[in-house]
Known about the structure:
Blueprint: H1 4-8, E1 13-15, E2 25-29, E3 36-37, E4 40-44, E5 47-51, E6 54-55, E7 64-67, E8 72-74, E9 86-89, E10 94-97, E11 115-118, E12 123-126, E13 137-140, E14 145-148, E15 164-167, E16 172-174, E17 187-190, E18 195-198, E19 201-202, E20 205-206, E21 210-213, E22 218-220, E23 232-235, E24 240-243, E25 256-259, E26 264-267, E27 278-279, E28 287-291, E29 302-306, E30 320-323, E31 328-343, E32 354-357, E33 362-365, E34 375-378, E35 383-385, E36 398-401, E37 406-409, E38 420-423, E39 428-430, E40 443-446, E41 451-454, E42 468-471, E43 476-478, E44 490-494, E45 497-501, E46 515-518, E47 523-526, E48 537-541, E49 544-548, E50 559-562, E51 567-570, E52 581-584, E53 588-592, E54 603-616
Parallel strand pairs: 1-30
Antiparallel strand pairs: 2-29, 3-6, 4-5, 5-7, 7-8, 9-10, 10-11, 11-12, 13-14, 14-15, 15-16, 17-18, 18-21, 19-20, 21-22, 23-24, 24-25, 25-26, 27-28, 28-29, 30-31, 31-54, 32-33, 33-34, 34-35, 36-37, 37-38, 38-39, 40-41, 41-42, 42-43, 44-45, 45-46, 46-47, 48-49, 49-50, 50-51, 52-53, 53-54
Amino acid sequence: MAEYKGIKGFKVQYLDQDPVPAVAGWSAGNNMNTARTNLAGAGIQTAGLVMGGNNAAGARTTLTEEYDGTSWVAGGSLPLAKENPAGLGTQTAAVNATGQAPVSPTPPTAITPTSEEYDGTSWTASNPVNTGRWLAGSAGTQTAGLIFGGAIGSGAPVNATGATEEYNGTSWATSPGSLNTARGGLGCSGTQTAALGAGGFADPGHFNLSEEYDGTSWSAGGTINTTRHTFSGAGTQTAGIVYAGRLTPGSVTGATETYDGNSWTTEATMATARSGTAGASSAPNSQAMVAAGATPPASAATEEYNNYGEPNTFQNVGQVWYNGTTKALKFTDETFSSAWATGNNMNTARYLLAGAGTQTEAVAFGGGAPDTGATEEYDGTSWSTSPGSLNTARSGLAGAGTQTAGLGFGGQSTVYLGATEEYNGTSWATSPGSMATARSSLGNAGTQTAALAFGGKNGPGASNTGATEAYDGATWTTGGTLATPRRELSGCGLQTAALAFGGDTGDATPGVNNSEEYNGTSWTAGNTLNTARRGLSGCGIQTSALAFGGTQAAVTGATEQYDGTSWTSTTSMSTARYLLGGAGTQPLGLTFGGLTTVGVANTEEFTITGTAGIKTITVS
Length: 620
């Protein structure tokens, strides 16, 4: 009788526990009972605590909730409704200190120095802090706590303090050591004698600085990679983690970073970007928790961060093992799902536009009607208008590159254009190199210094071209010709590994399903799209592409994935349209603008999620 190893080439493992995910990352937990922001947190991932904050209507609240690693339940109410307090300690021995509270007869934005202690059931008033403040950093326990920094004004500009205070379970004492850079809204972690504070703000600046406290004084630590404020942290001074926050332009982030005592390392991003969050402040940096915050609006979302290390056995898709504890034969497989999600609209509705970049750092430019040079940047949440417009307003152009190193070429205004412009994230500069074949509605691939242009319309009626040109950052050089000349096609990939698909040949059947692959020299036929169409868009690379939108007999939102061999239909866009813009990758795509019966400003994000799942083998 054949053995499993003889069939598969490896043995069935014998394990005492199921394997764990090998990749550090965030996963969704159950929502809080009340959505809110600007609250405080304490505890660990499986015994968390949140308190105070603003509810969805913006009102301050006294609510407390406890988390057991699965669900939230109501805890005892604070004696005073607060926003932006400092929290520290554990679920059954926490401190809530200072913040903003509507204390009569003081104004609604008054800063309160009050502090309270929680015993797992109710809050009891404790002695006040010496310097009232809001958005202070915090660390430590109920009997050895620490607060530092914070904002001390209620108007604009916001003044900040670097004052540090230590709590002994009864009273607060001002430390001789103040933060070297006064600020509020820090991400923080650690203990009373070994604390860490990072980021923060004090008008007019935002900071990427971190500082370390030794029980007496503060000294400089490593700088965080994402400058931000009003975010959360956990862990220790030499093994810290920070996550979420507000960025300098006013947008929010889910960026996550870990600290080793010297430098910060970027980790997997949270699923829901937000600021004003509560974290499990006493958790280790390998098992963090974040809840609530403003996306905006106020959120109730919970996420858990796990970074499993040795001696665990890590999950691998296709892995088979026998769990000696549960007496079950198991294996790991992976299922994929895809979906389009609606994003915020562009500022200028348009079609026949171009795009470049990624799902969270995209740039859109040009388009009509009328022809425009307007440029907008997308940060994964919202669009902002760039101060720089194309020097030549046009539609039907193509784009390549990134948000800070973009390229626009071709298109038409009153004539077909070969003009090329380079974008540096702020302004456009006209390149001395123009394409030899002026054209519009062309395909595109590559980067700012290694781009590819192919196909397009270069004359009246059905005058299509199959011409291909390569750009080296200064000049265009003629390459191999498309087998099927066409316009209103899409493309993606690199200059030496590009993909062209769909388009209009100008014959009786305007939308085609042809795809072609380019190797830097010549084009060869690829497999056909399932939905023939023109005016579509796409993103990705030659072996992992995404095609979406377009029109044939009717406008479509059809979406297809290419694996280098064949096209597979997947989830359609919410808004069917054509002559639209695109950016990103196959698993993280982005589309914006386009034409339904009118030009639109709609934005949609495409995401492919792969979920590894453990299955038990049963015999029936």
